[in-house]
Amino acid sequence: MSTDLSHRTVADEHLALVLEGRAPLVEDGAMGTMLQRTGLLAPGEPPEGLSLSAPEAVTAVHRAYVEAGAQLVTANTFGASALKPDAGLSVDEVFAAAVACARAAEPRYVAASLGPTGRLLEPWGDLDPDDASGLFAAQARAAEAAGADVIVVETMTDLGEAEAAARAALDVTDLPVFVTLSFGAGGRTMMGVTPEDAARALTGWGVHAAGLNCSVGPREAAPLAAAMAPLLGCPLIVKPNAGLPRLEGGQTVYDVGPEDFAAAMAPILEAGAAIVGGCCGTTPAHLAALAALVAAGPRPA
Ligand SMILES: [Zn+2]
Question: Domain spanning 13-295: which CATH class is it, in words?
Fold first, then answer.
């Protein structure tokens, strides 16, 4: 493991062990799909606003994950990169409120999430790379000011955007930085990035943990994780959905239940994933099954 932890503020010795690849870490499961189930979100309303308008509902989701065994919970900031100015939410207040909601659930660690902007970088789209860097730097500063322990750049499909976010977080904060990309069932991201290319690039940027999240379930994630593991110079993160999303009556549904989810995560742990959790469609029950699997330790060969 070549992870460089100098100049980083690492929350405690256990997190240092995790970042050195010497201990596993259980992250949380989905936030967005859990908040949708509360019925508190108006159609089209950004979930990030709930940290201010209904903080107890957000904390309740975090608490359910902590009780399920999650050591790290992810603050409700994922959509901040794509927030429209007319949403009336400032980056600083979104991060402060979201980190406070997460901290109130008393997890071991709180991560702040940096998600995609929803725009394409030039020359494929209209987003200037310097503007992207500025946007991610403002979020990273807000995350550190809010007291987050880790910055998680996630669900990225474009290496250029992932790099802008990762480098901004590395440059403007002293926090450990995790980065995960989102690969489709065909084995590439929407922008055509392979797991091998991603592993080499992410290692080159000097991030502290890296891997994949969202898009696919644990069965489809297993070969992707196996492809990334040998090429990464840092711990491997795997946070799949509760299966491939399926549309049913206009609703997105996920079919993989908690026990099947954990069973399909076992080969991913054997492939070397050290930081695991769930993404869309996963629930505290999925996380409880996964946490039990991690606690049981490596299976005898
Ligand atoms: Zn997801």
Answer: alpha beta
